[in-house]
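FORM 7B - TANDEM STRUCTURE REPORT

SECTION 1: FIRST PROTEIN
SEQUENCE AND C-ALPHA CELLS:
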Amino acid sequence: MSGKNTPPLHIIGGGLAGSEAAWVAAEAGVNVIMHEMRPHRNTDAHKSSNLAELVCSNSFRSDDAETNAVGLLHAEMRLAGSLIMAAADASQVPAGSALAVDREEFAETVTKRLESHPNITICREEITGIPSEDRSKVIIATGPLTSPALAGFIRNITGTTALSFFDAIAPIIHTSSINMNICWFQSRYDKAGPGGTGKDYINCPLTKEEYNVFTAALLAGEKTEFREFENTAYFDGCLPIEIMAERGAQTLRHGPMKPTGLTNTHKPHEKPYAVAQLRQDNALGTLYNMVGFQTKLKYAEQTRIFRTIPGLENAEFARLGGLHRNTYLNSPVLLDGQLRLKALPHLRFAGQITGCEGYVESAAIGLIAGLFAAGELLQQPVMPPPVTTASGALLNHITGGHIATEEKGSIRSFQPMNINFGLFPLVDIPKTEGKRLRGREKAQARKQALTARALDHFRLWLAHQN
C-alpha cells in the first residue's frame, strides 16, 4: 500500500535514531518530515549541521556477529536495510575487529542519502511542543541533549519531575561469572519483600583487611572528569561510591556495604566486616547489579578494583558503572510495547531517550520505531521482533524486561543499557560428541548458540513483515 494518501510521519531529531527511523519509514513508502534544530539552534556537543553526527567515539564497537551481542545487532540491522550500518560500512576505517568510521564521511553519507530520498523532507527548525491530537504520527528521537523547551514539553505530558540529571549507573555483572563458593544468596534479615524469596541478593563478604584495601583503591583510582556542559548537581541519593568513601573510612560499612542482617552460609560463625550486595537486574536472572556502586571511576579502574571483592575475581561485566547527565524516560511505565506513549499513542519515542545506551542501540531502536510507525500509517501492523533476537531483547529491556518493582509509579531497576547477552533468554548449547566443554570453550559455544538462534529468528520475523 502506498503512503501517498496517508498523513506524514513527523520525526523530531536528526541523530542516529531519528535518521534510521526516517529511512526505514521512507523506504516502506511513508512520507516523512524530519525536524532537526541544528544549525538554527546548536547543542553543547555537536560541531556541524550534519545529521547523525557522532559526538563522542567514532566506533560502533565489535562487528563480530558470532560471539558478540553488539556485532549481532549490526548483523540484524543490515538484514533490515539499516541506513546507519550502510553508511558505517561505507566509511569504515581500520580498527581490528571493531567497526569504526571516519566520522565526517559517515555523517555526510547519512545526510546526503536522507536529503536525496523522495519521501523525506528535512526541516531545520526547533520543535518545542506537539499537538495532543493529530492524525499524523510523531517519533521523538532527540537524544540525551534534548532542548530545554522540548524537554519541558515532555515533562508536562509524561508527568516526569525531571528529565535532565546525573543518573546513577551501577556496574552489572553476568551471574554465571560470580563465584558462589564464596558468595551466597540472602536478603537482609531474610526479608522476602514483594514477590521475593528472602534470597534475593548475592552477597560478597569482605574481611577488615580486604575492606581497607578496597576503600584505599577506590580513593586512589583514576576518575573521569565531567564535560563542560554537564553542570547538573549530584543527587545526594546517588553519590559515586568513591565520593561516599571520601566521607570517612566507615561510611561504606554503614551504607551500601553494611554487613548487618546477613550470615555467610559458607562460614556461618564468621561475621563479615563488610558485604558488597548484588541485586537481580533482569527477569531472566542472568544479570546482577552492584547495589550502591555508581561511580565515576574509569572503566579499566572499575574492572581492576571491583574484581578485588571476594567472589568477583573473575567477574564479567555486562555494563560498567557511571554517573553522567542524561535525558531518558521511565519507559517501562510510560511506553507500550511498540514505543508509543501510553497517554498519547500518536507519539513514539526512539533512541537514547527511551533508555538504551550506545550508537548502535540508539539506531536499532530508531529502526524499530520507524517500522512500527510506518506499519500503522500503511495499515500493515508490524509485530515486535522476537525477544530471542538482539533487536527484540533490547526492545524488551526498554518496555518490560526488567524487575517490575514499582514504587510511586516508577520502576526502580530501569536504567539505560547497552545490548548484551544477559538480556537474551537462555539457550541450550549443542552437544559435542566425545568432548565436554568447559570454561572459555563453553562460554564461546553459548554465545554462538545465542547468535545462531537470533539470526534465524530475525530472518523469520523479517519474512513475516513482507
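SECTION 2: SECOND PROTEIN
SEQUENCE AND C-ALPHA CELLS:
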Amino acid sequence: MDSNHPSLEALQDIKKIMERSSRFISLSGLSGLSAGICALVGAYVAHGWITSYGADRAVRGFDAGVADALKFRLVLLALVVLVAALVLSFYFTWKKASRNSLPIWDHTSKKLLVNMLIPLAAGGLFVLGLLYHNDWRFVAPACLVFYGLALVNASKYTLRDIRYLGLLEIVAGLINMYYAEYGLYFWAVGFGVLHIVYGLIMWWKYDKTPVYG
C-alpha cells in the first residue's frame, strides 16, 4: 500500500496542474460580497430618490424635466455602483491570486473575460435600446438575464459555483418580467442579496481554506 502513495500523490498533482491551467481559480468570495453590498447601497439610494420623486409629483404634478433628471441620476448611480463593484472585485481577486502565487492574467483569464463580455455587451446594447425608446420597465429584468447568461457562459473557465449564481440571476430576471413595477427590488435581490450569499459560500469553500486543500 505504501508503494502506491507516491503514484497517487503524483496523479493528484497532475490533476491540480491541469485544473489550474484550464480554470481561473482566483475568484474571491469577498469579491461577490463587496459587489452585493455596493448593489444594496445603490438600490437604497435609488429607492430614496424614487420615493422623493413620487411624493413631489403627487404635490406638483408631472414635470418632464424633473423626470428626465431622475432618470439621468439613476443611470449615473448605476454606473458608479458598477465601477465600485468592479474595482473592489478586482482588488480582492488580485489579492487572492497574489497570496496563492497564481497569475491573474493568463490564457485562461482571457478566455473567461471574452466569454463573459459577449453576453454583457449584448445586454448593454439591449438596455441602451430600451432607454432610447424610453421604456424603463424591462431594464432591471434585462440586466439580470443578460448578466446571468454571462456568468453561465464564463463558468466553463472558472469555479463551477458561478454557474449556479448565473442561473439564479436568470430566474430572477424572468420572474421580474412579469412584475416589472418591482424592478428595483428584483435588482436589489439579484445583484445584492444573491451576490452576498454567493460571496459568503465562496469564501467558506475556497477562501477560508485553499482551493486545492
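SECTION 3: OBSERVATIONS ON SECOND PROTEIN
The chain has one domain: 29-207.
The two ends are 23 Å apart (CA to CA).

SECTION 4: SIGNATURE
Preparer initials: ____
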